[in-house]
Structures are given as C-alpha cells and as structure tokens.
From TrEMBL:
Family, per entry: Belongs to the sodium:solute symporter (SSF) (TC 2.A.21) family.
Membrane topology annotation: Multi-pass membrane protein
Record keywords, A-Z: Cell membrane, Ion transport, Membrane, Sodium, Sodium transport, Symport, Transmembrane, Transmembrane helix, Transport
Descriptive protein name: Sodium:proline symporter
Pfam families reported in the protein's UniProt record: SSF
Residue ranges the record marks as coiled coil: none
C-alpha cells in the first residue's frame, strides 16, 4: 500500500501543480475552453492519445478481449480510429477554418437561432455525463483495489479531484498534462502486456492454446454481427466533440490535420495491447469472472507492488485525462451553446469564465450521479456512442456537403431520431437498432429538408467549402 500512496501523491502533486500554474495564467474564456486556438503539434498529438485511452481502453477493452477475443478490436477499437481518421483527414482543415468552440457552434453558424441547443444538450447529457461517469467508476475502482477504500468513498474522492483539476486548469492544463500522460499510459500498457504474455509462455504458446474464435477478427456470431456492432460505435467518432476540440485548439489547419493523423495512428496501434492482455488472461483467470474486473485481477496477481503501482498510475492518468476532457466538453456546451448564445449574448469574458467553471461543477456532479446506475463499462459506452451517432452524424454531414439542407430538416431529424432510438427496443422489430436508427435519421433529414424552405437566419453554404461566419462570437440567438 505504501508504494501506491507514494506514487499517487507524486502523480496528483504534479497534476495539481500544473493546474495551479494555469489557474493564474488563464484570463479569458477562450484560454480556458479552447486554449486560445494556439496549441502545437506534439501537445495535440499527446492529448489525442491520452483522451482515447480512458476507462474503455484499460478496463472495458481488456474485458472485451477476455470475453470475445481479438474480434473486439476489429469491431470496436479499429473502427473507432478509422472514423476518427476520416474526421481528421476529411474535415480537420474546414472545421479549423471555422474557428469555433463546439460541435453545436457549427449548427448555430449554419442555421442561426437556437439550432445549436439540440446537439449541445445531446452532447452534454447523452455523451459527456455517462462517459465522465465511466472514468469516475474506474478511478474509484483503483482506489478500492490499491488503498482498500469503499467504492462510494473512492467515487467522492475521484469527483473532488476531477473538479479541482478541471476548475483550476481548464483545457490548457488538460492538454499539457495529456502530452506527458500519453507516455505514461503507453509505458504502462507495454509493461503489463509483456508481463502477461511471458506469464503464459510467450506469443507462440498463447496462440497455440487459444481457440481460433478468440483470435479471429470476426466474432463467433459471424461477419454480420461484427459489422453491425461496428456500425453501432464507429460513425459516432465523426461527431466526437473531444476530437473537435483538439481540432479547434490547434494553432493552424496544418497542425490540426497532421497532429490528428499522428495521434490516432499511434493510439490505433496501442489499442491492440488491451485486447492481447484480455485474450492472454483467459489462460489463467476464471472464465466466469466479470469482464470489468480482469484488469485489476491481472495487475494484482502478476506484478509486485512497486511495478503494479506504475500500472495503476498509468490507469489513473488515462482516467484523469478522459474525465477532464469529458467534463470540459459538457461544460463548453452549457457555457457557449446555452448560456452565451441563448441567455446572455453580451456576456463579458470574465462572466463567461465564471460560468465555464460553474458548468464544470454541474457536469461533474451529474456524472457522479450517473455512475450509480452503470453496471458494465463497455455496454454503457457503446450505448452512448450509438445514441449520439444516430442523432448527429447525418445532420453534420448535411451541413458539410449539402447546400439544400434546412434548419427544419436538421432539427426535426435530431429530435425524431432521439425519440426513435430510445423507443426502438420496445417496438419488437427484427432489425438492428443502430442500422434502423441511421436509416431513419437520413430519411428524415433529407425528406423534411426537401419539403421545407431555408429560413432567414440560415447561411446557405456548405461548411466544407466556405467559412460560415467571420467570428462565431457574432452569432446571436435570434429566430
């Protein structure tokens, strides 16, 4: 235990030292939420790696590898990074050119009025809150395993740590610590992977003793199941606001593009490791073990405390970076898209900075409450991705490519798709939920747009080729 306490004190001491530095340096809302659109290549690369390696990677994907094998990598991890790379390669430059704060800003810039409220609330409540909850659950589990704290105690302490760091340091502290934490995360995963592979006799023995269904890129249920699972998670990454924030925070279009590509390629390779660990664990772990417990069991079982402490610090680094990114993402939605655009368009920078920090508190408290209802990390994360993807992907693509799309078409599609995807499980229909949801969203946005006219507040241009507004601060909440 003393090794763990020492490591944790050093880690959190360094984190809060950086946060304290930026607390006195940050003077504006732009500094706090988007790092003043001035972040360089390596910082963007590092924060992409760290943000993509949260509870889902360390805990969820190890458990997925343990239960289904390497097909989990191909139907979840690889498809996530494929769509993330599509976002960066196709849209990093045109999005950075818009010089926005959030995903919802794009909707407001294109359609005017309160259009951004719908994607803002969806992004904040349906994605940021539950995914923040996953990180808090992961942190409380670490404290339970290493220090013997109760899960509720660990949850409260985790909430306070995340709150303090996010309120003080904002996105600048998150990005600079992410760059360092990316190295810690990769180092920790490599140590754990090497240890468990050697424990089972090396890669040759592992592959020889593992049934083919756990080595195959296709799940035991067949190609159709693998593709439908991929559909439920992959498209969301086109509208993942954490990646959008990194694009906006980059100092220029070139940095947004090349740092985005570099970060996602690295994390796509690193993401193989948790699945390899999960498959290896099948050689000596009780196959009835709950999948979210595989990481902690393997780490405690195979490693001495001084080395295990490094692994747990790596996990905490992944969880911290995920949690701060997600609560800042949700807070930016509340501050920018709801408060500034709808409530107080003339808010001073000092007021916006204060509201940003209050919004961080709101999102973090909601995440803590949501943590009480989550029983499976991987399933909860997949649900959040599917719901957000179904609601937002086709409206986003329409804004980028289709001049004919209308405000009524987009709003109707988002609201109808939200209702559709939530009630679909109760309809008893034989079709896959994600597939049905995406088809429904596409049909509605196209049909309603063709049946309606452009509103007076709309900027009738495609965001792929044009900058929609000269300054997003000039967009007002007008009907």
């Amino acid at each position: 235990m003393y090794w763990y306490i020492t490591y944790f004190i050093l880690y959190f001491g360094a984190m809060f030292g950086v946060a304290a530095y930026y607390y006195f340096k940050i003077k504006t809302f732009e500094d706090y939420m988007i790092s003043s659109w001035s972040t360089g290549f390596w910082k963007i690369t590092g924060t992409i790696i760290s943000t993509n390696a949260g509870a889902a990677v360390f805990i969820g994907w190890m458990g997925l590898g343990f239960t289904v094998g390497f097909s989990g990598y191909f139907k979840f991890a690889l498809v996530a990074y494929f769509f993330s790379l599509l976002l960066v390669i196709l849209f990093a430059k045109p999005l950075r050119r818009q010089k926005l704060f959030t995903l919802a800003d794009l909707f407001t810039a294109r359609f005017g009025g309160r259009t951004g409220m719908v994607p803002s609330l969806i992004s904040a409540l349906v994605y940021s809150v539950p995914t923040l909850a996953l990180q808090l659950i992961g942190m409380s589990t670490v404290f339970n395993i290493t220090l013997g704290w109760g899960l509720n105690t660990g949850l409260i302490v985790s909430t306070l740590l995340i709150l303090a760091f996010s309120i003080m340091g904002g996105l600048p502290a998150t990005i600079i610590t992410d760059a360092v934490q990316a190295l810690i995360i990769i180092f920790g995963l490599i140590i754990l992977t090497a240890t468990i592979v050697m424990h089972v006799g090396g890669l040759g023995e592992l592959f020889a003793n593992t049934p083919f269904e756990y080595l195959s890129p296709v799940s035991a249920e067949g190609v159709g199941d693998t593709l439908l699972y991929a559909l439920s998670v992959g498209p969301f990454y086109l509208v993942w606001q954490s990646t959008w924030q990194r694009i906006f925070a980059a100092k220029d279009e070139k940095t947004a593009l090349y740092a985005g590509i570099t970060g996602h390629v690295i994390v796509a390779v690193v993401a193989v490791l948790p699945f390899l660990i999960g498959v290896s664990a099948r050689q000596f772990v009780d196959l009835d073990m709950q999948q979210d417990l595989v990481f902690s069991y393997v780490t405690n079982e195979l490693l001495p405390a001084p080395v295990a402490g490094i692994i747990f610090v790596a996990l905490l680094a992944a969880l911290m970076t995920g949690a701060t990114s997600f609560n800042l993402q949700g807070a930016s939605n509340l501050t920018r898209d709801l408060y500034q655009v709808m409530v107080n368009p003339g808010a001073t920078n000092e007021r916006m900075l204060l509201v940003s920090r209050v919004s961080v508190v709101i999102i973090t408290v909601l995440g803590t409450g949501a943590a009480a209802f989550i029983t499976n990390i991987n399933d909860a994360y997949r649900w959040a991705l599917m719901v957000n993807g179904v609601i937002l992907v086709f409206p986003f693509l329409a804004i980028m490519f289709w001049r004919r799309v209308t405000k009524k078409g987009v709003i109707t599609s988002m609201l109808a798709s939200l209702v559709f995807i939530l009630v679909y499980p109760f309809l008893g229909l034989p079709f896959d939920q994600a597939l049905a949801g995406y088809v429904f969203s596409l049909v509605v946005v196209v049909a309603v747009s063709l049946l309606t006219k452009h509103g007076e507040s709309e900027v009738v241009r495609t965001a792929m080729r044009h900058r929609l507004v000269k300054d997003i601060q000039d967009v007002e909440a007008k009907e």
